[in-house]
Write a structure and sequence with these properties.
The protein is built from 10 helices and 10 strands. It is an alpha+beta fold and 286 residues long.
Length: 286
């Protein structure tokens, strides 16, 4: 079999708000959120190989390959389809781990889509999203590939078209473990369900923010600084923060004033993910 190569992006996302509306008996949380992609992210290179090994390079600090969602995604696809092919995968990591930008979930989604194409396994986006949900609640968002309103545990997705401002993304210099936040007894879990119209009226928040600000002083300091420029917010369970700007120039000017040790970058919001743009994938209802 001739080997094939594929280089693809794994774009970042932000949660424009996050409400937790309840907790299920199985421990998962019911939520409402609005996802938008950024025009920046990780990138991955895939090469098919004749054996069934999944070789990932480099090994991320503190994340052995067996625990990496990229390897787990490839193995799930093999198991679901009976595929006898393997892959060599090179990860170029740009997004911070534990940052709330969806890096690990996006990497897993790109892996499922890329290997489904390289291996010719022929699954639909809906079938890939079902596999992805077993890896994490955010993975179907990246497989769907369009800005979306999400409910349930994050798997009920409705595509939406949003404004695409420039964002200053601030990395306050700490990691936040999603499991720690969702497992914390002080997390608010009783937000009433809302509609997209309510969001457009500005009547939203991030239910994780108050807790994370208390647990992580760096997040608190970052938000205090960022909100001098506008409606700064935390993405997901953190730690990454964002604020919209009308122009790239304005966002870059704010970035130039970012105090150490915080870091950041400027990116534009996207309604269609870079991955789907690259592969010209049509949006499906998941």
């Amino acid at each position: 079999m001739s080997r094939q190569l594929l280089d693809l992006p794994a774009p970042a996302k932000i949660n424009l708000f996050l409400h937790i509306t309840g907790r299920r008996n199985d421990g998962y949380h019911e939520l409402q959120t609005l996802f938008q992609f950024l025009d920046i992210g990780d990138s991955l290179s895939f090469e098919s190989q004749d054996d069934t090994n999944i070789d990932l390079c480099p090994v991320l600090p503190g994340v052995p390959n067996a625990s990496n969602l990229i390897v787990q995604a490839a193995q799930r696809l093999q198991q679901a389809t009976g595929c006898q092919q393997g892959a060599r995968i090179q990860l170029n990591k740009y997004l911070p781990m534990g940052g709330g930008l969806g890096g690990g979930s996006s990497d897993a989604a790109t892996t499922l889509i890329a290997l489904n194409q390289l291996w010719g396994t022929g699954l639909s986006l809906q079938e890939l999203a079902s596999l992805g949900l077993e890896l994490g609640a955010d993975v179907p968002v990246f497989i769907g590939g369009y800005a979306c309103w999400a409910e349930g545990v994050g798997e009920q997705l409705s595509p939406v078209t949003l404004p695409t401002p420039w964002y200053l993304i601030v990395l306050p210099g700490c990691e936040v473990a999603t499991a720690e936040v969702f497992g914390h007894p002080d997390l608010r879990r009783d937000s009433p369900p809302i509609t997209l119209q309510t969001y457009q009226q500005g009547l939203t928040r991030n239910d994780c923010e108050a807790l994370v600000r208390r647990l992580k002083p760096a997040v608190d300091n970052g938000l205090t600084w960022l909100r001098q420029y506008g409606p700064g917010a935390m993405s997901g369970t953190g730690a990454s923060l964002f604020c919209p700007f009308d122009s790239e120039r304005a966002a870059q000017q704010a970035l130039s004033q970012l105090p150490a040790p915080m870091k950041g970058f400027v990116a534009q919001g996207c309604n269609r993910s870079l991955l789907h743009q690259r592969l010209q994938i049509e949006t499906e209802t998941l």
